[in-house]
């Protein structure tokens, strides 16, 4: 009697262990996305005139959590934000035409764009002349005054344009309580958003980017899936500010910008 | 029911009970052994751990002595509570000697005696060679006022540097429009001779990463354990990083915060003092920045640097894809694939195209196998 009972219990225990083993094997075979899997976006920004080589270089793009619909009010606010062109900003603060011409000549947004390394440029721009004169008085060296020219420019000229844009950016994001990360494009217009939780996002530049005649605003919905960077190298998320491009490239472009003409500057 | 089973189980012969228990444990152990990912927190099998970047990592030097121990006055520490007044309480900016030792106004010398003697008069006049003098003076003698260079490179560092790469990259951004040469504005002043704008572009130096990270000119210091495989990278393998205020004050001298008198805007007192280690530590030590084909912009390969708001926790951010766009492309080169195939044939093969043997003998990470379009594998699993 005892022997029969013990045999039955042993068999039950064995079958329980085997069931446990089988269940684990079944779970192990089920393909599951690991909870910490992350995705990558390879962003490519092509601008007019579009050729394989033209990319929008050194511009910041933001990745906003949620779909276009979920971010609708933020996007509406972006579109409503009045555009102040670089030239209008500098004219508005009373900058000299020579300074505006200097910025324009080198496609600069501010005087931080490059060093004023030529005395002829200093002589041509009244703001530069005044800054060098003040610096020479302060440091006792005309050469150092030229190198450190920006430290003796007025706040508005030095970085006022940047600060105004940053203020607008902060206001837009704080109002929407949006969760964002950002990256900057390289010289070919490529940037990577890495280590992203899979889901729906909006890629946006938030503050319109000024072109030669219009200002561009991108708001592009993208679905991020888990995967390695090597998987997106041949599948970039390409966006552009024009449809005027070769059919193949047009087909590869996922999203186009909303263009707004640059406003005329108020006369002084 | 459970009581019945428990009773029956206790009725079993001790030997049989022991066997059943052993059998269950063995099965569970086997399951855990073969399917570890089902039991790990992340759900992912832990792979090869990357080496920690050691370059410039803080190294603890010494803990401040407890109050009961005699104070070592040869060691000055900003961590001491009484040394945490406003910076300009002791430091002058610029110091009187700046024109002799720098080509820009700077803090180029130690504070004067007044900064110390107010509290440390007893230590100042203790013995013929007061130990407190050795904080600043290379030779302790009333007839010699020679001081160490400021700052003393051999002394442990006490401050960490704040630097937001993202902001700095934003302010040097350019407009994207390129006007045709005919539409470019010309300066009208007679003193300004305007040349061909196209030619100008080649000579004008735009501010970019290189204003702080120019090619390194001095040879790197050998690691404490010596160069692996006796491979000594030349200076141009690396880019330099700023080592003085010269890279900051040209914009942040005044007005543009953090300015020269706002030391705390950039310098944060660390928890411990540390020595910087100049010896390079890289995964791919054989990559030379200066190689003529490596001409892309920094951010093309350093893909995460434009979102870095601080220097804390910066990680190596060059993915293998930055290399394999040229080094593992059909019709171009197959440098990664070839070395993976070499491992297939000989599991002790050491990858050497990019790596020195300390890295090259490890299991290639899964990213390398993905590039080659293969399943990742471990050396130990190869026959």
Could you characterize the architecture of this molecule?
The complex is a heterodimer of chains A (268) and B (383). Chain A contains 9 helices and 11 strands. Chain A has 268 residues and is of the alpha+beta class. In chain A, strands 4-1-9-10 form a 4-stranded mixed beta sheet. A 4-stranded antiparallel beta sheet of chain A has the order 3-2-5-8, with no helix packed on it. In chain A, α2 (72-80) packs antiparallel against α8 (155-176). In chain B, 26% of the residues lie in helices and 3% in strands. Chain B is extended, with a radius of gyration of 31 Å. Chain B has 383 residues and is mainly α. Chain B has a two-stranded antiparallel sheet. The interface between A and B is large, with 78 and 77 residues.
Strands, helices and their partners?
The complex is a heterodimer of chains A (268) and B (383).
Chain A: H1 2-29, E1 39-46, E2 60-65, H2 72-80, H3 86-92, H4 97-105, H5 119-124, H6 126-139, H7 142-147, H8 155-176, E3 180-184, E4 190-196, E5 199-204, E6 209-210, E7 214-217, E8 219-224, E9 237-240, H9 247-252, E10 253-256, E11 258-261
Parallel strand pairs in A: 1-9, 9-10
Antiparallel strand pairs in A: 1-4, 2-3, 2-5, 5-8, 6-7, 7-11
Helix pairs in contact in A: 2-8
Chain B: H1 2-11, H2 14-34, H3 98-101, H4 114-124, E1 157-161, H5 165-171, H6 197-203, H7 246-252, E2 267-274, H8 298-301, H9 320-327, H10 335-345, H11 357-360, H12 366-371
Antiparallel strand pairs in B: 1-2
């Amino acid at each position: 009697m005892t022997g029969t009972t013990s045999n039955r219990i042993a068999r039950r225990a064995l079958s329980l262990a085997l069931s446990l083993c089988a269940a684990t094997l079944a779970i192990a075979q089920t393909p599951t996305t690991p909870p910490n899997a992350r995705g990558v976006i390879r962003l490519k920004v092509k601008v007019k005139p579009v050729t394989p080589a033209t990319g929008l270089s050194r511009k910041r793009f933001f990745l906003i959590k949620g779909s276009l619909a979920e971010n609708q009010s933020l996007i509406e606010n972006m579109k409503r934000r009045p555009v102040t062109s670089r030239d209008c900003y500098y004219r508005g603060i009373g900058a000299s035409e020579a300074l505006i011409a200097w910025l324009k000549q080198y496609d600069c947004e501010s005087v931080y764009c490059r060093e004023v390394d030529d005395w002829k440029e200093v002589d041509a721009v009244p703001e530069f002349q005044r800054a060098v004169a003040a610096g020479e008085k302060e440091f006792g060296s005309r050469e150092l005054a030229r190198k450190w020219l920006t430290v003796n420019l007025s706040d508005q000229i030095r970085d006022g344009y940047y600060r105004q844009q940053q203020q607008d950016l902060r206001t837009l994001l704080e109002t929407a309580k949006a969760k964002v990360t950002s990256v900057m494009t390289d010289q070919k217009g490529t940037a990577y958003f890495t280590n992203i939780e899979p889901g729906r996002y909006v890629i946006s530049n938030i503050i319109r980017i000024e072109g030669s005649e219009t200002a561009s605003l991108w708001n592009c919905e993208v679905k991020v899936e888990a995967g390695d960077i090597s998987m997106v190298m041949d599948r970039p998320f390409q966006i552009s500010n024009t449809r005027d491009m070769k059919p193949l490239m047009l087909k590869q472009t996922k999203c186009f910008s909303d263009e707004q003409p640059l406003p005329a500057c108020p006369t002084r | 029911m459970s009581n019945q089973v428990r009773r029956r189980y206790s009725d079993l012969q001790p030997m049989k009970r022991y066997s059943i228990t052993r059998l269950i444990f063995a099965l569970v152990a086997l399951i855990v052994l073969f399917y570890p990912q089902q039991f790990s927190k992340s759900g992912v099998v832990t792979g090869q751990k990357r080496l920690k970047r050691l370059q410039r990592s803080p190294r603890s030097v010494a803990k401040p002595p407890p109050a009961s121990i005699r104070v070592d006055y040869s060691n000055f520490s900003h961590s001491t509570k009484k040394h945490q007044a406003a910076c300009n309480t002791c430091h002058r900016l610029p110091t009187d000697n700046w024109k002799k030792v720098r080509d820009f106004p700077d803090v180029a010398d130690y504070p004067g005696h007044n900064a110390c003697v107010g509290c440390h008069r007893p230590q100042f006049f203790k013995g013929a060679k007061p130990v407190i003098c050795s904080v600043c003076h290379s030779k302790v003698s009333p007839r010699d006022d020679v001081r160490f260079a400021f700052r003393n490179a051999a002394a442990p560092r006490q401050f960490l540097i704040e630097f937001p790469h993202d902001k700095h990259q934003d302010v040097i951004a350019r407009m994207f429009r390129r006007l045709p040469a005919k539409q470019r504005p010309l300066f009208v002043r007679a003193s300004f001779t305007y040349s061909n704008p196209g030619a100008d572009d080649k000579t004008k130096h735009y501010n970019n990463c290189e204003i702080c990270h120019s090619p390194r000119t001095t040879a790197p210091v050998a690691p404490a354990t010596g160069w692996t495989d006796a491979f000594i990278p030349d200076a141009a393998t690396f880019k330099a990083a700023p080592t003085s205020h010269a890279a900051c004050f040209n914009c942040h001298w005044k007005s543009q915060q953090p300015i020269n008198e706002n030391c705390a805007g950039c310098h944060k007192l660390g928890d411990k003092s540390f020595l910087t280690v100049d010896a390079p530590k890289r995964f791919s030590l054989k990559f030379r920045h200066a190689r003529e084909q490596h001409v892309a912009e920094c951010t093309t390969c350093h893909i995460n640097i434009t979102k870095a708001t601080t220097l804390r926790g910066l990680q190596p951010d060059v993915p293998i894809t930055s290399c394999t766009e040229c080094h593992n492309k059909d019709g171009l080169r197959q440098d990664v694939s070839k070395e993976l195939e070499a491992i297939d044939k000989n599991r002790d093969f050491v990858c050497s195209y990019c790596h020195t043997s300390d890295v090259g003998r490890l299991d290639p990470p899964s990213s390398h196998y993905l590039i080659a379009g293969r399943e990742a594998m471990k050396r130990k699993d190869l026959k």
